[in-house]
């Protein structure tokens, strides 16, 4: 059953243009000029209870604006939205008891207070029964493993610790839907993995519906089952993550730091660097960069699993360090459009496998 229904949603921002210089400032004061930006053009989709949806797209695609309309923070310019039967911007207060949102860049924890105090305040805001609240709080403290710093002021927590507390706070009132806008932004590999596992666990155990935005393809692959890709405020793809993986997330980049020089692994004399190892002269493997001790390969994991590639190189060279990264979201979007973008590897997407 659909618990979120979005139909032809649009949002145009109208902002006053700032003038520079005294004369222009006076002119713009007398006759202000406005600029319109269509952040969301025409978005329609439905979400069933228990789904985990990735809502992805490049910077400025309209993801946060859509979430803000679904949670009642913004009203739209056109279209309709029903979330759990409510119209978010008209019934924001009623809806707030049943949903929660996390904006990775903004904190809902009181900066100078320990998370425990924020939890107590939220319990009052959501009018929770105190016994039920304590049980729930203790359960979340255990699940999110935050007992050690629940009494430390939020301002003193590391980003990963704070994010775990943010999420615990989000689940306090047993929301039926959570909107997570970049919940893993800025986190290291281990903290990111932990957040992914926790979101997946609460979805499985409590059936909470999740709508998640992220620039990290790993979040999408590991947490979500369906993905909506948007660009310029419009949906360009609505598919299962399995299909997205098969068609667009199959390329991985392996960066290797070698004890020896890369020349030992390359065929001499060719213009384009090519591996000399016969087993790795495979259409699914491309050398992206080769310099002194570092080698960057692109591997099409559908045609060629990663393990044998790494194992074959290890037989010939000692590997000092290795990272495996997903293509950046811009590249995925570009390949959805059917063309390849030369966007650089997103450093934050890198997951280190060896140190
Ligand atoms: N309050 C606002 N006033 C004017 N323009 C805005 C406002 N909020 C967002 N925009 C513009 O709307 C467009 C969509 O922004 P939005 O934050 O929804 O994108 P996003 O997909 O979440 O991007 P990112 O991945 O960078 O967070 C952008 O061009 C942005 O500059």
Cofactors, ions and other ligands in the entry: adenosine-5'-triphosphate
N-to-C order of helices and strands: EHEEHEHEHHHEHEHEEHEEEHEHE
Q: What CATH first level of the largest domain would be assigned? A: Alpha Beta
Please give the number of β-strands.
14
Calculate Rg over CA atoms.
24 Å
Describe this structure in words.
The chain has 355 residues and is α/β, with parallel strands linked by helices. The protein has two domains: 2-247, 3-Layer(aba) Sandwich (Rossmann fold); 251-325, 2-Layer Sandwich (Alpha-Beta Plaits), CATH 3.30.70. The protein is 31% helix and 29% strand. The protein has eleven helices and 14 strands. The protein has helices at residues 22-30, 63-70, 92-96, 115-125, 130-143, 159-171, 189-206, 217-223, 241-247, 306-316, 329-336; strands at 2-16, 34-48, 52-56, 78-83, 99-103, 177-181, 209-213, 226-231, 234-240, 251-258, 285-291, 294-300, 319-325, 350-354. The strands form three sheets. The chain has a six-stranded mixed sheet with strand order 5-6-7-3-8-9, with helices on both faces. It has a five-stranded antiparallel sheet with strand order 11-12-10-13-14, with helices on one face. A three-stranded antiparallel sheet has the order 2-1-4, covered by helices on one side. The two termini are 47 Å apart. Bound molecules: adenosine-5'-triphosphate (ATP).
């Amino acid at each position: 059953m659909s618990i979120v229904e979005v139909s032809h949603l649009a949002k145009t921002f109208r902002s006053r243009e700032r003038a520079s210089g005294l004369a222009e400032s006076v002119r713009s004061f007398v006759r202000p000029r406005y600029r319109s930006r269509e952040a969301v053009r025409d978005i329609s989709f439905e979400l069933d209870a228990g789904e985990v949806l990735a809502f992805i797209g490049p910077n400025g695609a309209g993801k946060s604006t859509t979430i803000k309309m679904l949670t009642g923070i913004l009203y739209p310019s056109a279209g309709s939205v029903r979330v759990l039967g409510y119209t978010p911007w008209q019934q924001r207060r009623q809806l707030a008891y049943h949903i929660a949102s996390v904006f990775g860049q903004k904190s809902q924890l009181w900066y100078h207070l320990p998370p425990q105090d924020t939890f107590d305040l939220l319990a009052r805001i959501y009018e929770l029964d105190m016994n039920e609240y304590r049980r729930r709080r203790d359960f979340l403290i255990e699940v999110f493993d935050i007992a050690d710093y629940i009494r430390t002021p939020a301002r003193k927590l590391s980003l990963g610790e704070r994010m775990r507390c943010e999420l615990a706070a989000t689940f306090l009132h047993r929301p039926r839907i959570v909107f997570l806008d970049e919940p893993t932004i800025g986190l290291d590999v281990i903290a990111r993995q932990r957040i992914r596992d926790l979101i997946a666990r609460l979805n499985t155990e409590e059936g909470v519906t999740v709508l998640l935005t992220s620039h990290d393809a790993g979040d999408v692959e590991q947490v979500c089952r369906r993905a909506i890709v948007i660009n310029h405020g419009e949906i360009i793809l609505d598919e299962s993550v399995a299909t997205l993986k098969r068609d667009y997330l199959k390329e991985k980049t392996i960066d290797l730091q070698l004890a020896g020089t890369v020349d030992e692994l390359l065929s001499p004399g060719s213009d384009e660097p090519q591996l000399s190892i016969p087993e790795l002269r495979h259409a699914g493997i491309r050398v992206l960069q080769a310099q002194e001790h570092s080698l960057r390969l692109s591997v099409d994991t559908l045609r060629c699993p990663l393990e044998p590639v790494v194992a074959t190189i290890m037989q010939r060279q000692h590997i000092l360090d290795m990272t495996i990264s997903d293509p950046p979201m811009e590249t995925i979007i570009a390949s959805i459009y059917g063309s390849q973008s030369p966007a650089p590897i997103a450093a934050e997407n890198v997951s280190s496998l060896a140190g």
